[in-house]
Structures are given as C-alpha cells and as structure tokens.
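Technical note accompanying the year-one report. For the benefit of new consortium partners, we illustrate the data format agreed upon in the data management plan: each record pairs a sequence with a structure-token string. No post-processing was applied to the example shown here.
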Amino acid sequence: MIVIRNETAPDIPAREILLDRALPGRHLKTCEKLRRGRSPADGLAFSAWQGARLAGTVRLWHVEAGSAGDALLLGPIGVLPECQGLGIGTLLMDHALAQASAMGHRAVILVGDAPYYERFGFSPAPTASLTLPGPFERDRFLGLELVAGTLAGAIGMVKAGKRLDAGDDRRRAALIEFRQAA
C-alpha cells in the first residue's frame, strides 16, 4: 500500500538519497537553477511511502512564467528504481496536480518526457514562446493550464520564485551535514 503525505523536514535526507539514485545528474539540469536556494511552494511537496520506506517524491515551486506571471514548476519527481512501474509516479502526479488546482494555482510547467506527461494533460504548446535560463530541449518543455487560457500567448523567460527562509537555511545545513556523514 502506498500512502502519499505532505513532505516533512525529517523526510528530506531520505528524499535526497532517493533522488540521487533515481535521477543521477539532476543537479546539472537547467530547472535546478530555478529551484536552487528556494523553498517549494507551501503545501506542494509530497512523499510517497510504502510502509516505512520512502518510495517516491515530488515538489512544485513558484516561478514567474514570462508574461503569464505566476505559475508552478514541477520537479523533480522521483521514484526508487526498485519501485518504478508500480504506479507511484502516477499517484504522486495526480495528487500534486489536484492539490495545486485546489489551492487556486493556474498553471504548471516542467521539463520532462512528453509521452509520460501527456497523460496528465501536459503539452509543449503552452510553453512554445517561453524560455528557460539555460539549455533545454524544446520538445521536453511542457505546460499544463489548470485554468484555461493562463499560458495562452505567454512569452518571455521563466524566472525563479521566492527565496528560502531562515528555517530552510537550517534544514539545508543539516542536509549537507547528513550527506557528509554518510
């Protein structure tokens, strides 16, 4: 049985280990520039638990999507390699998008595998005139309007959202210490 819940501070070390295993090289991605030094959007960071094991994770982040204004950036989403194919990624996506919509967010963008994300309603059309602050593959830059028309005609650069708060700085320092001890 898989249980999805809001991410808590004690989840973060296990989350980082999971993402290192599931997504090697993730720190080199352009979208990481938009996340670095920032907090995920309040109430939009989730952990998928299989018993006592963290099996998957997803976070959404505030960004400014060019002329469209406020949007969310999804990612990374990761599932333990040994748990892939069990539907955990789908559960996380459905949960995250439902929560974002319920909270009144209007659009979500991401860089990812179009055939995977199309089933959730993502497509490259809404991001066709948007750009990212670094290299990216145009056909992998996808958008989803939670409110119809939000990204219609949007042009310009996607920019990062709010900065970390002092509590996040302490959590980041604890995570670095944890990694160095491991």
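Partners are asked to follow this layout when depositing records. Residues 166-181 form the longest helix (16 residues).
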